[in-house]
Amino acid sequence: MSKWQARQNVAFYVIDMVLFGLAVTFLDASTVIPNFVGQITKLPVLIGLSGVWFTLLWRLPQLITAPVISRSPDKRRWMLFSSIPGRLTFLVIALLTVLISPSNRELLLIVFFIGYGIFAIADGITNNAWVALIGSAVPHRTRGIMFGVAQVITAVSILVVQGLLRQLLGPSGPGYPLNYAAVFAIAGVLLTITLPFVANFYERPMPSPTRVIGMSDYLPYLGQILRKDRIFQHYLVMRFVQDASVIAAPFFIGYEVTVLQVPSAQAVSDSLLAVMIGNLLGSALGGWLSHRFSSRLVIYMHTVAIVVGPLAALLSVSVGRDALLISFACIGLITASYGPGVFNWLVAYAPVEERPVYNSIVNTFGVVALMVPLIGGLVLQFSSYSVLFGLALVIAIAAALLVIPLRAPPSGIGELDD
């Protein structure tokens, strides 16, 4: 791959991440989505499910598709194969939200969850190919600064356009559910614009894994990795507990509206702004730390935000809304630091030809942890927000303790030079 092709890849990756990040912000799983579902149903379990529905279904297909994508000489084709139907889905959801009567709440809920699930599954398949391409096409330290630049641009863009979200969801907007149809349509358009850039990534030829031929060989190989790779074992457990620490996050917005008595439109807009401020801070610091030092330092920053988030939510019970906005800012910082920290560590550590396999193991292993918001819904149903936030803090502290012994990743074979 020439230097010009490598630079074009970086540019196209940044454009794809910015547009995708903007779209996902309009579909924010901690504010917009739970608030939308909360206006259809008051069941805490369904509201909690909405906050993890994307990530849950995003992870499920990865273990199955990883060996196929690893062996494929054309991973970009896999990206397009799954991206096209997945990224067009929200245009369909927006149209159906307009056509379905607001009184038909059950049908609206079913259509949303099915459409959101299709988007998640398709993007989960895309992610395996994306990981394989980015690991061989962009150097380790360049990846860190690339993630940071993309997230800074995304955060600044959201700070500029967040007034549009306030306008759409506020009293002067088109009203429910047309306001959310407009939000979904904007997200769908942004996702659609990414497709030409995905289609023009340059793919660097890489060796196919020689130890895995078919599913009969693949399953024992997975067992071998899980038994023998002690560093990876520790990373898996760390990621599991980190994922479980989001047990209370889908309920922050409901707590803000119902307990703190903040109007819904203001709560979504202000909370999203706090998320974006955290995202901006995490992007700038995460990109710089990863490029200047290592991804492990970014993971430390990531972990501090994991602990501070539920701690601030717990303090908000007594000191008020300002503390809760810190919790939302921590959500943004956690999201921003994931790429240059936790994800970048994995890409650098995994054998180059088996990155989709390692990535799929991590994401599939974390599916169980993502069920914890459902447990959070049950905890809330039978206790209180204080109990829920306290439980989240305990899990977050456990995650922090697991991060301390994590080793720095070695330089991966097949990495490009910076």
Structure in words:
The structure is a single chain. The chain is mostly helical. The chain has 18 helices and no strands. The chain has helices spanning 3-26, 32-38, 44-59, 62-71, 75-99, 105-137, 140-169, 178-193, 195-199, 215-228, 230-244, 252-258, 264-292, 295-319, 321-349, 355-365, 372-382, 385-403. α3 (44-59) runs parallel beside α6, α7 (140-169) runs antiparallel to α15 and α14 (295-319) packs antiparallel against α15. The chain is globular. The two termini are 14 Å apart.
Strand content: under 5%
* Count of alpha/pi helices: 18
Structural class: mainly alpha
- What number is the mean pLDDT? 84
Largest sheet properties? none
What level of helicity do the residues show?
A: over 70%
Shape: globular
Unreliable residue stretches: 412-418
Report the strand count: 0
Order of helices and strands: HHHHHHHHHHHHHHHHHH
The N- and C-terminal alpha carbons lie at a distance of 14 Å
| Rg result | 21 Å
Annotate the secondary structure layout:
Elements: H1 3-26, H2 32-38, H3 44-59, H4 62-71, H5 75-99, H6 105-137, H7 140-169, H8 178-193, H9 195-199, H10 215-228, H11 230-244, H12 252-258, H13 264-292, H14 295-319, H15 321-349, H16 355-365, H17 372-382, H18 385-403
Helix pairs in contact: 1-7, 1-8, 2-3, 3-6, 3-17, 4-6, 4-16, 5-6, 5-8, 6-16, 7-13, 7-15, 11-18, 13-14, 13-15, 14-15, 14-18
